[in-house]
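> call design_seq(struct)
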């Protein structure tokens, strides 16, 4: 299991606006804000965004990462997708069942402001959801 996960952002404010909105749809919120790092979650900060360092080994181009956030149902996956695309996120995959993963896997994929592949997924969807 993952305790927490963090990514670096080229524009922390743009990323904060993105994650405030799309994670809010999934029932998560900004729990901690240190100005240069923001933690999101429900019971504790499990997902962090931080300023991209300008010097040192972590500076330079940000590599794409994939982040999948749990959604309770297909409707919430759709709401996540609508929130993200409403903010101008690039569509990678519209909401749908992904039977190649398993028969109840319903996900939607977008790019965040830093080019990361961000997904909302429900593992209990039914055909027709």
């Amino acid at each position: 299991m993952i305790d927490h996960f963090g990514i670096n952002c080229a524009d922390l404010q743009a990323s904060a606006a993105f994650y405030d909105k799309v994670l809010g749809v999934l029932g998560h919120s900004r729990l901690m804000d240190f100005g240069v790092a923001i933690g999101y979650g429900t019971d504790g900060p499990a997902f962090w965004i931080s300023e991209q360092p300008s010097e040192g080994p972590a500076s330079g181009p940000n590599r794409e990462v994939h982040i999948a956030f749990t959604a309770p149902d297909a409707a919430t996956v759709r709401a996540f997708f609508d929130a993200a695309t409403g903010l101008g996120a690039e569509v990678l995959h519209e909401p749908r069942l992904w039977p190649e993963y398993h028969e109840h896997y319903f996900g939607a994929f977008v790019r965040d402001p830093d080019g990361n592949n961000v997904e909302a997924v429900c593992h209990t969807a039914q055909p027709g959801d």
